[in-house]
Structure formats: C-alpha cells, structure tokens
Amino acid sequence: MTKQVWMIAVATLVMCGALIIAALVPTESSSKTGIGAPLLTEEPAETPPGMVWIPGGQFVMGTDRLPGPGQANVDHIKPDEYPAHDVELDGFWMDETPVTNRQFAEFVEMTGYVTFAERKPTREDFARSGVDVSRIRDEDLIAGSMCFKAEFDKDGLIRDVPGWEYQVWQVVEGANWRHPEGPGSTIEDRMDHPVVHVNWDDAMTYCKWAGKRLPTEAEYEYASSCGDDRKYPWGNDLLPGGEYQCNFWQGEFPVDRQNLDGHLTTSPVKAFPPNDFGLYDISGNVWEWCHDLFHAEYYSVSPRRNPKGPTTSYDPQEPGIVKRVQRGGSFMCNTNSCTGYRCSARMRGEVTSGSFHNGFRCVVDATMIDEYRAAQERIAAWRKTQVAAAPDAATPR
C-alpha cells in the first residue's frame, strides 16, 4: 500500500524493467543454529500494565500448504508465506491491544508530535523509500492519507492483475489519525479504537516514547498462533459456532459491503475475544506494523533463533520501493481476495505510508526493562503535572 495514487504508475514502470532480487542477508540474531543459551520462558520482571507475557518457545513459521498450478487456493495463500521453517524465540511482553486513539493522543499531547499524514510531505520524504521523485507533481504533495474509495467505478473494475486493489483506494486530503475518513470525521467516539493513519516512523516514534519497540514479524506470528499450527488465532474455523471472532469485511470485496459483525470500519480494541495468550485484535481490525523490512524470499534464509528480518527490502510487485512488514489483517480483509486475518498471512507497506486501516502495537523484551521503566517514569511525571493543572486531565493508561 502506498500513499499517493501516482505510485501506481511508478510501480508499473518499475515492473516493466528487469527484476533484480535483493541480497538476502539476515540481520543479527542471538543464534543462527538454535544452539546456545536456553530460551527465555519465565518472566524476568513484573508484567507491565496493559501487556501480556509471551513465553519463549519454538514454532513453525510460514506454511508449506502453497497450492500448486491448477490447484484451488481457497485461503489465498501467497508465495511469500513459503517455505515453512522452524523458529525459536525468547519470551517478550506484548501490548494486549493495538495502540488506541486515547493512548496516541496522550503521546501527542506530551510531545507535540505531528504525524506524517498531518503535514505536507516533500519529495525528499518519498526519495528515501525509493520512489522516483521526478514523477511527483506539486499538486500531489498534500497532507493526507489513504482511504477506501467507496464511489469507485464498479463497472470498470479490473481484477486478477497485480495491484488491482489500487482502484478502490484514494488519498484523501486532510485524512489523518484525528480524522480517519478525512475532514468532517472525528475520533471523539472512537477513543478506544486503534489509532490509524500512522506510518512506520510514526509508530517507531511512539514506541521510543513509551520505552517499547515494534514486534518482529516472527514475534507477531508466534503471538498470533500461540505457537500452534492453527489457521487463525482462535483455531481452524473462521466462524466457530457461527460467531465472528475478529473484524473483517463481509460480502464480496469490494462490491458488496455487508455489516454482519457490527463494524464497517474500526471497532473497539476489545470488541472480540482474545486468543489463548490474552491478545485482542491480533487478527482483524487494523493491519499492524512490524519492525522487519519486507522481503518476499526472506523465509528461505531466515535464521532459526530470534530472526529480525532481512537487511534489504524486496516486493516483486514494486521492486525498488522500501517496505516494512505489516501483520494481522484489517476490517478490509475478506474471503475472496485478502485473508490477512490468517496467522501466517503477510502484508507490506511503503514506509512513509499510513492508511485508514493500519495501526500498530508494541513489545518489550528482557533487554529493555530499564529503558521501559525510565520512559514510564517520565510519562508518570508528566501526568502529575497535568493533574495538578487540571483535575480532569488525561488519566494513566
């Protein structure tokens, strides 16, 4: 997903050229063999508020169920989910929910931070993600973000081509985390919904403020699946007992938008049951940023223990554009094209881009305890000044 409509044309031009696969050099990990110190399974400190402990363990990441030529692909499994490979992870704490508007508002109030979608971007902003800035028009440099284009041309819709979904997206001027659908929309009644329209840098800045970090892709899949060979965070049936377990699109995407789960867009972060680890919205509602660069072929060389992703990014649909991993699916995922709510499903996002259906959550590992405590002490001290100035100011979250 990219921020500007003009990037469709950019991607098309790039794909017409030679596809040069980037070198797959993994980042450092604690072990490439799985041999070494025992995995961390017991909590090394008290669980931070609003987080849950994910005990270390081994699991099979990805899948070997990629259908062959001519075989039905009812789950819409993609080649980048292959091959399945063993991964070992040390334990970590993970936010029990995606970061909410309420939490993000406190961060903004304390720091004065302005998200990427709230300011007018420059060509230099896009250059660092690999975009050919010579193709960017002045009128394209607007403060805004990607939204669903409800009034798309249904009769002219072309499917079964790479990137066909771009036909139903549009950059909306003035769309940002405060105004999810653009000017005139508000989050006043959505403070417990996940924050959206945040790009990777926005998420990273919040994490640093809170003394946390983004999860690795491996950590996210392990937390989602609870280390089991399950299709969804709750099991192998999409609708066990006919009950919806997460927020996703009902009906044929994008032409038939139903509302059988009660939520057309984002939902409150605890509207659906948690998985066995106690994590809410680990599937559905919003796509969530991960730390890793995205590379379609990384799984073939991924280290076994604590993989942190490749050192280069490669998306065969838009080679040359730097992307980071997103996980978990969103309220736009569906049964006919994007089953992102599956545990092994992968997505990627251009690093400067946010959208109305992507957010994030944070993790803390054993090496970050001091950093986390120091950050929380700063936040607690700031909260005291707010309470002293106004008794009804922001309360601890």
UniProtKB/TrEMBL annotation:
Q: Which SUPFAM superfamilies match?
A: C-type lectin-like
Q: Which UniProt keywords apply?
A: Kinase, Membrane, Transferase, Transmembrane, Transmembrane helix
Name of the molecule in the record: Serine/threonine-protein kinase pkn1
Which InterPro entries does UniProt cross-reference here? CTDL_fold, Sulfatase_Mod_Factor_Kinase, SUMF_dom, SUMF_sf
Give the encoding gene's name.
Answer: pkn1_2
Q: Which domain of life is it from?
A: Bacteria
Organism annotation: Maioricimonas rarisocia
List residues traversing the bilayer.
Answer: 6-25
Give a yes or no for keyword Ribonucleoprotein in this entry: no
Q: What EC numbers are recorded for this enzyme? A: 2.7.11.1
Annotated Sulfatase-modifying factor enzyme-like domain ranges read 48-363
Q: Which PANTHER family has this protein been placed in?
A: FORMYLGLYCINE-GENERATING ENZYME, SULFATASE MODIFYING FACTOR 1, 2
Recorded GO molecular functions are:
formylglycine-generating oxidase activity; protein serine/threonine kinase activity
